[in-house]
UniProtKB/TrEMBL annotation:
Stretch list, region Disordered: 1-39
Membrane topology: Multi-pass membrane protein
Protein known as: Cytochrome bc1 complex Rieske iron-sulfur subunit
Highest rank taxon of the organism: Bacteria
Native species: Streptomyces orinoci
Alphabetized CDD domains for the sequence: Rieske
Residue intervals passing through the bilayer: 56-78, 84-115, 167-186
Residue ranges of every copy of the Rieske domain listed in the record: 239-334
Role of this protein: Iron-sulfur subunit of the cytochrome bc1 complex, an essential component of the respiratory electron transport chain required for ATP synthesis. The bc1 complex catalyzes the oxidation of menaquinol and the reduction of cytochrome c in the respiratory chain. The bc1 complex operates through a Q-cycle mechanism that couples electron transfer to generation of the proton gradient that drives ATP synthesis.
Length: 351
């Protein structure tokens, strides 16, 4: 019988024969080949090359420091509204472009300097260690500490003073970028949190009809929303200002008003309170005419409009500010000044 007549699966494979031969000879076909021979870098054998690498790393760290200084200068010197043309992006904010570029360079140079330092000057000798239990023995702990000391010594941090000093300088200056970014939270509010658009002589404008309010327009038990005279929804700062100046107008029977100052500041039982909840600033819109209570829909803070806007339930911290009003010579309701205290939620310097 020729070999062509023998089924293919019956023929012995050369791989199987090789494996059998290896087993017979006692050799492990999957033995660990070990680490390849270590090849020294040019910096390991030539001190001049090592000095060049040291200067490169120091240059990168120094460039990072300069970029951080550039970040601070750009933040202080470039106007917020200045635009520049950058191809192919187009017109963008000069301040944002400068801050992003300088911050990116500062970060990149720190990273590139650390990488170049590790690749050219730190020890690159391969070390293999056997797996060990998770809980290290005293001998292993001692070995780890010794390896750490060897790594610190081989990094040449103490000997390469130029690298050490410039690295510390770059790392120390870079956080200054974050400190200056705190200024980007916005300018100091000054008196903006304490003042609204209300002032003496400004008429109360019905927000639904956009007409000045007369006392006869406000019925007992009704709730009307008003804003100061002179404001318009077309104003660029309308939303910002109405968030402080929004007003609730309610007419109570004078005998139902418990607070004497509230009664003195009212007109025939018509009282005006801030619409802004003193908890987190939600607009109040729910009124219960039988109890004279208003309810904030966000967190259910409840205020008594017959008792100086006092908080009777919920997380709000202080009463609703009241606006003193009167009737002018033309028969319209007008403010006698601004709110006597800041409207809305409490803040650190509210007092």
């Amino acid at each position: 019988m020729s070999s062509q007549d023998i089924p293919e699966e019956s023929l012995p494979s050369t791989q199987g024969a090789a494996h059998q031969g290896a087993v017979v000879s006692g050799e492990d076909p999957f033995a660990d080949p070990g680490l390849p021979p270590h090849e020294h870098r040019i910096q390991d054998i030539d001190e001049r090359a090592a000095k060049r690498s040291e200067r490169v790393v120091a240059f990168l760290f120094t460039l990072s420091m300069l970029a951080t200084v550039g970040f601070i200068v750009a933040y202080l010197a470039i106007p917020v509204d200045k635009n520049i043309y950058v191809f192919p992006i187009g017109h963008i904010s000069a301040l944002n472009f400068s801050l992003g570029l300088s911050l990116g360079v500062a970060l990149f140079c720190i990273g590139a300097g650390a990488v170049h330092w590790a690749r050219t000057l730190m020890s690159d000798v391969e070390v293999a260690d056997e797996r060990h239990p998770i809980e290290a023995s005293p001998e292993v702990k001692a070995k780890v500490l010794a390896d750490f000391a060897d790594g610190a010594r081989e990094s040449a941090l103490g000997r390469r003073k130029l690298i050490r000093n410039t690295m510390f300088g770059a790392l120390a200056m870079f956080p200054l970028s974050g400190v200056f970014l705190l200024g980007g939270l916005g300018p100091k509010p000054g008196t903006k949190l304490r003042k609204t658009k209300w002032s003496a002589g400004k008429m109360l404008i019905n927000q639904n009809t956009m007409q000045p309010l007369r006392p006869e327009d406000v019925q007992v038990g009704s709730l009307t929303f008003a804003m100061p005279e002179g404001m318009s929804e077309e104003d660029h700062d309308f939303q910002q200002e109405i968030a402080k100046a929004a007003l609730m107008i309610v007419r109570l029977r004078p005998e139902n008003i418990k607070d004497k100052r509230e009664l003195d500041w009212s007109v025939d039982g018509i009282v005006a309170f801030s619409k802004i909840c003193t908890h987190v600033g939600c607009p109040i819109s729910l009124y219960e005419q039988q109890t004279h209570h208003v309810l904030c829909p966000c967190h259910q803070s409840t205020f008594d409009l017959s008792d100086g806007g006092r908080v009777i339930f919920g997380p709000a911290g202080h009463p609703l500010p009241q606006l003193q009003i009167k009737v002018n010579d033309k028969g319209y309701l007008e403010a006698m000044g601004d709110f006597p205290e800041p409207v809305g939620p409490a803040f650190w310097e509210r007092g």
